[in-house]
Amino acid sequence: MTIFTRILTGLLLLVSVAANAADDQAAQQLRKLLDAMNSLQGDFVQTTYDKTGVEQESSSGSFMLMRPGKFYWKTLDPMPQLLVSNNKTIWLYDPDLETVNIREFTEDLRETPALLLSADIEQLRKNFSIAKDAKDTSAEKYTLTPKVTEGMFQQLVLVFKAGQLTEFAIQDSLGQLTRCQLSNVQRNKPLPEENFFFVPPEGVEILHD
């Protein structure tokens, strides 16, 4: 899984009063959906496309998420990898390379899409313009656009069906699109705290950022 670590920098974009009103309404609707989602677990298929829409790579695995900032993302195919966050530390374990990359959970790491999903709605609204697609009647689709002039990605799209998060997609600054489809999703099931803490296996190389 790709981890976005570049810090969002630059000035906030100026928006009109009308745009702010629409943004607030969409943010409130998104708040209701996210507030009902304290934890989430299931399977994922993640596919990346270049700016012309040609598929570049695909991966699959399982995930667990608990707000705020607790996250477990296990890629099984094509290459095993594990990303774990307990809202204080992030571990990235690569069993093939026998390495564990450990870094502090800080604001600049909130660019990782799944960590955005586990963030507080007020934090999302502070950093993003939020719009709802009124034309799509089959699902509730929200587009989050960073309120900065520079950044690692241009848009994050969250898709809900019957109140359940089923997909998110992220478009980076180069036009590359990463789409993550969720399945077998269970919401608000108890998740043990130890799932969000990683103990490196004996003998692996430990790297610190």
UniProtKB/TrEMBL annotation:
It comes from the Bacteria. The keyword Phosphoprotein does not apply. Residues 1-21 form the signal peptide. The keyword Methyltransferase does not apply. Keywords: Chaperone, Lipoprotein, Periplasm, Protein transport, Signal, Transport. PANTHER family: OUTER-MEMBRANE LIPOPROTEIN CARRIER PROTEIN. Monomer. This is Outer-membrane lipoprotein carrier protein. The gene is lolA.
